[in-house]
Amino acid sequence: MKLNIGCGHKYLEGYLNVDAGIDSLADARMDAHDLQFASSSVDSIVASQLIEHLGFFKSKYFLAECFRVLRPGGVIRLETPDIERTLEVFLAGDRVAREAALQWVYGAETTGMQHRFCFPLELLREVTAEIGFLLQEEEQYQYEHHRPAVRLTLKKPTEVQRKGCFAELRKRMVERKIPAFDDETTIAAQEEILRRLASVDQHDWRNLLGVALHSAEIVREYLRLQADDVPRARQYEEIAALLAEHRFQDVMFELLKSNMAGAGCQEAAYLETLEQGRGIVDALANGGNSGLPPVPDSRVRVFLPSAIKAVADKTFAQGIKECILKRYPEAIERFATATAIFRDNPFPYWNAARIYKVLNNFELARQQYEMAWTAMAASPEIHENHRDALAAEMKDLLTS
C-alpha cells in the first residue's frame, strides 16, 4: 500500500489518498497525526506541502505515525517550503516577489490552507532523525515562481530498536488525548518527558518511575508497551497507572504550593518536592503503603519548571486584573497563590506590597517589599532593570 497524505486536491493514481479536509479528494479521511493503519503495513508515503499546516509539535506526531505505519525499509517523500530561501526571495525581491514569498510562508486565507510552522532545513533534518528516519536524499527545487521548496527522501531502517517503541508511544498518547496540541508550553514540556524517557535504560525502573513524577500518564503508556517484553514491566506499569489515576503531577503541584521555602527559593522548593514525590513512588515500588493524597482539584498536565511557571504567570495576571478593578482582597489572594507556585518572580510580592500600602497596612507592605527584593535577587535580568524602582518605593515606605 502507498499513501498520499495531505492530498488536498492533488489525487495520485496508485495511492490511497488521505486528507482530513471534507472538501478534499481523499479516499480516506483522517488526521495526519493519527493514521488509521496498522503498524508496518505501508510501503511508501508521499507528503507534499503538508507539515507546514500542522505546526511544529503535531508534525512530530505525524512523522512518528509515518515511521510507525511504514514497513522496515519503507520510504517517505517529504516536501515543504524552504523557509530560508523564501526569506531570501522576500528580502531581495520586488513587490510581486515579496507578496508571493509572504503567502508561501503564511499560507492562504482559506480554511485549512494557513501555515502554522515552516521548518528550517537544519531543524527538519534533526526532527526526522530524532523520530528514527535515515536521510536518503535531499533536494531544493522551485514549487512555483518565487516559492522555493525542499524535498527529503527518508527511509525507515530495518532495525528500528527503541525508535519504533516511541512511535507506538506517541500513537497511544494521541488515542488517549494526552498531547496538549492547544497549549504550546504544556506540549513542549511533554516533549521533554519523552526525551527523558528515551534517555533512561528500559530496565532502570527507579528512574523510569522517577519520570512519572512529572507525567504519570505518559510513563503509564510507555510501560504498557513494555509489559509483554520486559521483565517486571507490568508491576511498574500498575504503579504508574495508580499514579496516573491520582493525577500525580497534580499531587506534586499541590506539594510544591505547600512547601515552606520563601521568596527567591524556587529551585530548593522544586527539588524538595521531587524528593517528597520520589518517597511516595519508592514506597509503592517496595510494596508499602504510600499514603497517596486525595486527587487534587488542580489541573497540571506536566510537572516541570516551565509548566509550573506558566500557571504562576497566569495567576499573577489574574491578580493584576483584580488590582486594577480595586478588588484588593481577591488580588492579594491571587498574588499569594502565584508566589506559592513560583517564588522567584518579584512582581506578585511587589504588587501585594503596593496594595497593603494603599490600605495603610505598612507592616505587611514592608514584608512584601522585602520578599520582592529577595525574589528579584534570584532573577539577575529583572534585578538589573527594576532594582532602582523597587528600592525607591521601599525608601518611600520608610518615610510614610
Q: What would you note in describing this structure?
A:
This protein folds into three domains: 2-158, 3-Layer(aba) Sandwich (Rossmann fold); 176-285, no CATH class; 312-398, Tetratricopeptide repeat domain (Serine Threonine Protein Phosphatase 5, Tetratricopeptide repeat, Alpha Horseshoe). The protein has a seven-stranded mixed beta sheet. The mean pLDDT is 94. It has 16 helices and seven strands. It is of the alpha/beta class and 400 residues long. α5 crosses α8.
The radius of gyration computed from the alpha-carbon positions, rounded to a whole number of angstroms, is 26 Å
Main pleated sheet: 7 strands, mixed
Mean pLDDT across the residues is 94
Structural class: alpha/beta
Bin the strand percentage: 5-15%
Tell me the domain tally: 3
CATH-assigned homologous superfamily of the largest domain:
Vaccinia Virus protein VP39
Output the keywords.
alpha/beta; 7-stranded mixed β-sheet; Rossmann fold; Serine Threonine Protein Phosphatase 5, Tetratricopeptide repeat; 16 helices; globular; 12% strand; 3 domains; 400 residues
